[in-house]
Amino acid sequence: MSQSIAADPNRLLPADPGTRSIARNLLSLVEELPILSPHGHVDAAMIEQDTPFPDPATLLVTPDHYVTRLIHSSGIPLDRLGAAGSGTPGAHGTTPRDTWREFIKAWPLFEGTASGYWFRQEFEHVFHVDISRLDQQPGEATADAIYDELNARLSDPDFRPRRLFRDFNIEVLATTDDPLDDLAAHAALAADPTFSSRVLPTFRPDAYLKFHTPDWAARVELLISAAGDGQSGYAGYIRALENRRQYFVEHGAVSADHGSKTALTLKLSAAQAQELFDKARLGKATAADADVFEAHMMYEMARMSVADGLVMTMHPGVFRNHHTPTFEAFGADMGHDIPVPVSYTEALRPMLEDFGTAHGFHFIPFTIDETVFSREIAPLAGFYPSVFIGAPWWFLDAPDAMLRFRSAVTETAGFSRSSGFIDDTRAFCSIPARHNTSRRIEASFLARLVVEHRVSQERARKIIVDVVDGAPRRAFKL
Amino acid sequence: MSQSIAADPNRLLPADPGTRSIARNLLSLVEELPILSPHGHVDAAMIEQDTPFPDPATLLVTPDHYVTRLIHSSGIPLDRLGAAGSGTPGAHGTTPRDTWREFIKAWPLFEGTASGYWFRQEFEHVFHVDISRLDQQPGEATADAIYDELNARLSDPDFRPRRLFRDFNIEVLATTDDPLDDLAAHAALAADPTFSSRVLPTFRPDAYLKFHTPDWAARVELLISAAGDGQSGYAGYIRALENRRQYFVEHGAVSADHGSKTALTLKLSAAQAQELFDKARLGKATAADADVFEAHMMYEMARMSVADGLVMTMHPGVFRNHHTPTFEAFGADMGHDIPVPVSYTEALRPMLEDFGTAHGFHFIPFTIDETVFSREIAPLAGFYPSVFIGAPWWFLDAPDAMLRFRSAVTETAGFSRSSGFIDDTRAFCSIPARHNTSRRIEASFLARLVVEHRVSQERARKIIVDVVDGAPRRAFKL
Amino acid sequence: MSQSIAADPNRLLPADPGTRSIARNLLSLVEELPILSPHGHVDAAMIEQDTPFPDPATLLVTPDHYVTRLIHSSGIPLDRLGAAGSGTPGAHGTTPRDTWREFIKAWPLFEGTASGYWFRQEFEHVFHVDISRLDQQPGEATADAIYDELNARLSDPDFRPRRLFRDFNIEVLATTDDPLDDLAAHAALAADPTFSSRVLPTFRPDAYLKFHTPDWAARVELLISAAGDGQSGYAGYIRALENRRQYFVEHGAVSADHGSKTALTLKLSAAQAQELFDKARLGKATAADADVFEAHMMYEMARMSVADGLVMTMHPGVFRNHHTPTFEAFGADMGHDIPVPVSYTEALRPMLEDFGTAHGFHFIPFTIDETVFSREIAPLAGFYPSVFIGAPWWFLDAPDAMLRFRSAVTETAGFSRSSGFIDDTRAFCSIPARHNTSRRIEASFLARLVVEHRVSQERARKIIVDVVDGAPRRAFKL
């Protein structure tokens, strides 16, 4: 048996022995349940084509901006980690092994972080590589040894996405897709009799709703001509969005996802919306125009969700690309998206006034501003049948933050209003670690309620199964 | 002895055995102390007339919007729960037994919530009905059986408000009353030699201070003619408020309560205030006018409190009646009052500049925005002799939230600046459960400080008595 | 051995026996390490001249507005605590012994507070006076007895600043100084071969950057004539600030500290800045002008820090002198500085755009608005090499708040991005208690991560040494 802390069966469970023992019992009911992943960023084509994994650095370090950002904060330039304007690792003369060495040198930075925990789990349970030696000697020789071990593992013909998909016991995996994506990989997987899980597309129209997206006008032009049913202008734009959502529904999509700037929703008249839209196409829209139009489109997206049944997810409140020089050198998603304060109560009202009790409408707000958990989200979800409480997301997708989340929402909204866990990851190999973490935290939280005689043990056993398995099926209509 | 978790003597106490044992010891000092309830919504006439309780659904479900909201969130329309435009349960053809069945069907929704915990306590300790069977078989047969048992209990002639009042060991119970209420029930109780407790009115003038209250102008007309000493206009309005406060003082009131929109206070000149007041009476006031006037009236209420000694309580930061269709169908208090961010530091300054150190002035801010506990309320109460820290209120009146509250305020302001617990309830039968919950949490928090050698056991024993019994007497001048 | 809870070796450590034992082990690695105090308010001249301490009240009560504020909140006027317009204790006829009696009478107010905890530690470990008797009999006789014991101790010729400095094992102590201070005491200490520790000045230019400071124009006049190299106006002002910073650098300063109103930074053109500056010198600047200019000067201070290497610390978000009557009677720093909401993400952007990755630039934001820990500060420090996470400060410099802080930031930013502990105190004798508290909390937090198998014991042992000793050296360039 491994000596790694990542192998300990009590990992993440509460210190108190009595509570821990109850948590172990609760965990045993859900630890082996299939994975439901209704929101994430894995590439469907990789699964479909069963693409071999690249080297360890290109797989685990370079594309994970949650990892590169922290190494960057220690003073290592991003191009030493494989980032490049061109997107090609090594463009600046850095080899994957160089990047890996930087990563292992930076290993201590990840102690106590969510990423560090996932890595330990992944190495232990997916790659079967013992990294406990890093606790003693994190030097270059160790880095190289681990790199070589991983490389061997990754080039094993048995170590491929489809095999892991089965090993991970993934029942549903949702991807995130451009509205004009043809969803060919999703269709091929659905038609493949050898592939029995579900890989579902998610409609993500952000780039078409925000005037300031690079090439917004060209994108919209393309959208309208591809799916506007011959209509032009704002009417064609709305029609095209409706049509492409329908296309996604037909390809198995269950949700539409929105990374809006704020939580604001607004109901403009068609004439008002059209005026802003036309202004933007002429390149004359102001920042305020863009905000108003995006808020209006959030209302429109809700209206379409009521009509076509797609679950609407929203995750506002992040200042994207905070450091312009980094954005200009390396593009988006480089680890400098920084949260800002958010508030939902007044912002969502125009939408909830009209659709808050609409039959079948599901709206799931996510947040990285913890202040709204007890103040706004739990009270909203505790009244509106349409509002589900988004699981702790991004920076909050971590053990302590998850416990704070449960403590903040449960006393007001109970367990039934939760979205269930989402992993939101592009790191395929980290999926089991992320879901297992969530299950351990649910067990820990519930075990405390049992010890405090707030929930009976019988009920806790039912609740944990519902929270892990029932909630995502219910909230995301799986 | 009951097998229910609600009967466990360790309920809500910390898991660690050493800490739990100290908590038990501390709890034993306060568990049987009389109940002081300086803020709530029980009907004084019900006590005075010793009105028999209605059926279980009409008593426990329909009027408790904290309960109906959560059932509503699961998709049950409010009229299935007894709500009606007319206020008459059953108006939509739903019988109390139907409502009760919906409630029991929804029972799992309340696991982990404050309401669920109170219900378990109430069933165990007030109604002596064993509901632990709900943990196994929450079906319709169980629902009916519990309904019938409760009904039998409720129609027992010994099971009446006055008898329970004595059984609950309530020493003081404050109600919440309209400024024009004649307080006849309060007077009758005070004059009744067979009733030895105190039932005190609370002056709640919200409807007269907010221009947008339905019938504001008519209410104000009535107020002025009833108590304006013959003066008219703004002067008569102020005079009438002063007079009615005096009437409340003479009937035993100790506090005036304010559900203001924000925490803003403003000192207008009499001429400025009169101008807004006159504009509003003509129906021409804007939303901004209403906000300014309300802020000014908060200042005025403080001024009057300094003069007449009524403790001033304020609980801003709630967006009332968030979902207009629900408001239009069922009226106010239907579970869709949703908190918004609040800030006190600058907002209260005009008032605290003038009255913050005024002799005998007591100001108690409540909040459901947890962010202000450590940031603003504890620092304000740690300087101003007039400011007391309002107990966790509404959505925050729950075990975990109370512990977060104590952790957030104590290190800055100690224990002496707290308002003491308030139950804020209209659910008379839940009063013991609510106070007992608070006492268990105080014991839990203090026990941890003892175990961490931050407070000596001798001092902790004194503190818990002061927090439970001394603080509300001091803050509310009981 | 003392019976005081302050002497217990397990004080502040977690209740769970297994976790406590690991915490004890971790604590043993750092408890005796030298004290690094890179930010505080001790008077360098007192060290240099080895000034005897005054009586207990004048030493421990009167100058500590964190203490007097809480006694004030209980209704005791500030002049009973030694405060006076003139700054002379006793000016209002109150003797130090009177003040001390008020303090001991108020002793129970401090139970559970950070101040109360520090006092117990200080009495036990610095003054060797047993105050556990206060837990039983906090009367006047006890007050007088403790006063006399302390007085005897304080007049012992061995009980002097330099001796304590050595006993406390202080390696580095930073003071806070006016830009025009000649730093003579610092120079004398540096030149003194009998004094082997480092006492460093800190450049604190607030009074020269805020138009509304009393005597701003006169101060600026003096600054320009003293250090403007003959230049006048805005150019002379900037030059003088640069020159005085250089003077501080030459006298050992490692940081410049900024108590800005908000976190806003702005880059004005020299012409724009000059216009505001000239307007202010004519006494015509508005409040908005002052805000803009201060934000611009924060940008300028960052620019200068990049050039001269001084670490830039910032602690915005406090409403100073909230109660004007108290300010007018007693001046600043009387305990009514009250926090307001703060946000960094957008506010710091102009500065971080230009200097966020500048070589050698260190920026340390502090906060007393806890909401920013997980939402903004950890994400910013997890990307920008220049941003370090300021330790919990002021009201948050307390055991529970420190644990909340670690829980909020670590999962996102790990341990490496922390500033290390700062005591920020003018109470010299409390320094060991404050640092020891921090070390115990770090041990408690890490022990939990070890028990939860999130960090290995080997790594935890390295981390705690780095957090206590490495972090402040790294962040403050010690």
From TrEMBL, chains A, B, C:
InterPro entries: Metal_Hydrolase, Uronate_isomerase. Its EC number is 5.3.1.12. One of its GO terms (biological process) is D-glucuronate catabolic process. Pathway: Carbohydrate metabolism; pentose and glucuronate interconversion. Keywords: Isomerase. It holds the Pfam family UxaC. It is an enzyme of class 5 (isomerase). It catalyses: D-glucuronate = D-fructuronate. GO terms for molecular function: glucuronate isomerase activity. Belongs to the metallo-dependent hydrolases superfamily. Uronate isomerase family. This is Uronate isomerase. It comes from Arthrobacter terrae. The lineage of its organism: Bacteria, Bacillati, Actinomycetota, Actinomycetes, Micrococcales.
